[in-house]
Structure formats: C-alpha cells, structure tokens
Specification:
The chain contains three helices and no strands. By secondary structure, the protein is an all-alpha fold. The radius of gyration is 28 Å and the shape is flat. The relative contact order is 0.05. The model has no long low-confidence stretch (mean pLDDT 82).
Length: 78
Amino acid sequence: MMRTHTWRILATGLVLGGGLLAGSAAGYIDPGTGSYVLQIAIAFAVGLAFSIKVFWKKIAAFLRKTFGAKKSGGGDAS
C-alpha cells in the first residue's frame, strides 16, 4: 500500500513540475471561436429557459411562500 502512495506522489510531482517548468506557449484563436462562444451562450439561455418552464410550478410556489403576503386571522393591527 505504501508503494502505491509513493507512486502517486511521484506522478503528481512530475505533472505539476512539468507544468511549472514549461516555457511560454503561443496561442491561436480560430476565426470560428466567436461563433462557437455565441452558440454556447445561446444554448445556455435556451437550457435555462427550458429548465424554468419545466420547474415553473415549484419555482412559483416557492416565491409565493417566500414573498407572499402573510394571511392573518384577525383584523387590522392599527
């Protein structure tokens, strides 16, 4: 068991050490990246809207319970 633990520590150290010792990397953004980011944003908005639609009754009940007017059994307090 101790041997496995030692290998894990060694592997983690090599991976982290290799990342820290790496030089600068040249980056390239493809012209299609903007449209891909736009697709992700639209998919997120549609997914959020669908989730709200599916769970609307639970959301509305929670909001009514949280922010709804409290019903009092008696008359006006003033």
